[in-house]
């Protein structure tokens, strides 16, 4: 391209804005999944962006070349450790997000079990409600995931059942505080005690709750939130995402460890090549300091009193929504959510929550469909953030209207013949052509576009054998990502 026909910076940014127009909004509290808005407005956002930009080119790969990254991390980890029951021994690592924190926690446990107990075929015991990131870790790092069922009313596991699943090969036991899907806190003390009794590590996944629950517990009427942090005996590591309820830009999470001796098992060192000596604390090599700097700045800007106030507004709004949802005929909130996450199910066969989610989207609100699994009912998920403060009446009115529309439309129907045929398919021998034909039948045509109404697709997905669904999903997404050079 010659200099003459190169687009101007303004034109490029205008193109970017045009692409963004199709996205869900990331501010304003109407997108009830994926995004976290403090509602604090322009000043906080500008600070985060400036800190991000100032450090975007700094490479955390080499801490000796860029000591600023070490200083930033030490302050952020120190703040997290103080908030989450750490001791003088507590250490940590800043990662790119919850998935990376979980992956590193599992990798560290695998290496620790091999080094200290000679475990060569490691297992990980986890509640059925644990985040999918643990299954990803099991897949990537060669552990066997041993799932413990949860109670159909509390959506948490019985610590005795967790204890019974722990064996010689167990490298790690997992608890959620809270679980993503239902927002309930597992009985961490009982689970951690069961792990400690067998000399096994216990990770608390507080990715979503870690920056909210400590503040929520300071409020009146939150006595029901159980102890969950590093102060609980037997808890050896904990993950907390800053890009969730610490309201920092995407790309920041903290993984805390009981002590440095445990953490070192997850570090990777390599002196077996002719380049620079490698020591990686995370899975990344080159690592932008932008997200870390933005997180550091936002933590300082909002501060302890600020987070307490945001938690108060968030929990108040979530409670208002919970009561309001329970008052809508046919709908109910599952379990006893601890803070800010609601799983809404339907008790009326004519009212399908997947259809409800589609209808609600037309009203300008996004809630996240969650297919039923292992006997747990299908739900829609609401992540409530401080930006939703004051918006509960509007959302409840929209939910009520959408519920009436969904009931009138009736549930998304799945062709029983298709489900029957799918049950006979061997996912391992499915060809690309078979997959394309199946997706076509499912309404996911080869043009790569996703349908406006997702309810029929989700309803079918829920009915497919897990292995077949996991074979087809990559083809759906693969269809979206096709090179389009400019
Ligand atoms: C969000 C989340 C994760 C994964 O975090 P990402 O930042 O999305 O990678 C893990 N566990 C829980 C409970 C979560 O809510």
Short description:
This protein has 486 residues and is of the alpha/beta class. The protein contains 16 helices and 13 strands. Helix 3 (67-83) runs parallel beside helix 10 (290-326) and helix 4 crosses helix 5.
Structure description:
The chain has 486 residues and is an alpha/beta fold. The chain is 42% helix and 12% strand. It contains 16 helices and 13 strands. The strands form three sheets. The protein has a seven-stranded mixed beta sheet, sandwiched between helices. The protein has a four-stranded antiparallel beta sheet with strand order 10-11-13-12, with helices on one face. A hairpin with a 7-residue loop joins β8 and β9. The longest helix has 37 residues, at 290-326. It starts with 8 loop residues before the first helix and ends in a 6-residue tail after the last helix. The mean pLDDT is 95. Bound molecules: pyridoxal-5'-phosphate (PLP).
Q: How far is the first residue's CA from the last residue's CA? A: 11 Å
Q: What form results from the Cα inertia axes?
A: globular
What's the number of helices? 16
Low-pLDDT stretches are none
Bound heterogens, unique = pyridoxal-5'-phosphate
Instruction: Give the fraction of residues assigned to helices.
Output: 40-55%
* Integer tally of domains: 3
Percent strand equals 5-15%
Mean pLDDT: 95
């Amino acid at each position: 391209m010659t200099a003459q026909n190169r687009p101007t910076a303004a034109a490029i940014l205008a193109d970017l804005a045009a692409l963004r127009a199709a996205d869900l909004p990331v501010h304003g509290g109407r997108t009830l999944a994926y995004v976290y808005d403090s509602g604090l407005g322009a000043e906080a956002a500008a600070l985060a962006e400036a800190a991000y930009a100032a450090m975007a080119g700094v490479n955390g790969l080499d801490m000796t070349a860029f000591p600023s990254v070490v200083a930033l991390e030490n302050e952020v980890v120190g703040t997290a450790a103080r908030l989450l029951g750490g001791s003088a021994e507590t250490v940590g690592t800043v990662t790119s997000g919850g998935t990376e924190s979980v992956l590193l926690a599992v990798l560290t446990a695998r290496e620790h079990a091999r080094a200290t107990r000679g475990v060569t075929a490691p297992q990980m015991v986890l509640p059925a409600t644990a985040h999918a990131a643990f299954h990803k870790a099991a897949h990537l790092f060669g552990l066997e995931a041993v799932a413990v069922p949860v109670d159909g009313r509390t959506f948490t596991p019985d610590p005795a059942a967790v204890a019974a699943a722990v064996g010689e090969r167990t490298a790690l036991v997992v608890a959620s505080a809270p679980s993503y899907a239902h927002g309930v806190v597992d009985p961490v003390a009982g689970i951690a005690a069961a792990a400690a009794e067998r000399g096994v590590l216990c990770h608390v996944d507080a990715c979503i709750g870690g920056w909210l629950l400590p503040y929520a517990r300071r409020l009146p009427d939150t006595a029901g939130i159980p102890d969950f942090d590093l102060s609980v005996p037997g808890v050896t590591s904990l993950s907390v995402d800053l890009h969730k309820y610490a309201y920092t830009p995407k790309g920041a999470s903290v993984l805390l460890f009981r002590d440095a001796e445990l953490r070192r098992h997850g570090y990777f060192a390599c002196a077996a090549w002719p380049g620079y000596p490698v020591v990686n604390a995370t899975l990344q090599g080159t690592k932008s300091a932008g997200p870390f700097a933005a997180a550091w700045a936002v933590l300082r800007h909002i501060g302890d009193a600020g987070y307490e106030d945001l938690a108060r507004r968030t929990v108040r709004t979530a409670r208002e929504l919970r009561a309001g949802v329970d008052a809508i005929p046919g709908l109910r909130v599952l379990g006893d959510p601890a803070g800010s996450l609601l799983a809404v199910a339907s008790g009326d066969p004519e009212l399908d929550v997947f259809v409800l989610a589609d209808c609600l989207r037309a009203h300008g609100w996004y809630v996240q469909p969650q297919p039923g699994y292992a006997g747990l009912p299908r739900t829609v998920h609401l992540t409530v953030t401080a930006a939703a403060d004051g918006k509960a009446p509007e959302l409840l009115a929209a939910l009520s209207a959408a519920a009436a529309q969904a009931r009138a439309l009736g549930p998304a129907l799945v062709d029983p013949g298709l489900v029957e045929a799918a049950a006979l398919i061997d996912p391992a021998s499915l060809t690309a052509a078979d997959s394309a034909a199946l997706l076509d039948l499912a309404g996911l045509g080869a043009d790569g576009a996703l349908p406006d109404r997702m309810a029929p697709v989700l309803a079918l997905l829920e009915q497919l054998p897990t292995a077949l669904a996991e074979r087809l999903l990559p083809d759906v997404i693969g269809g979206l990502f096709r090179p389009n050079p400019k």
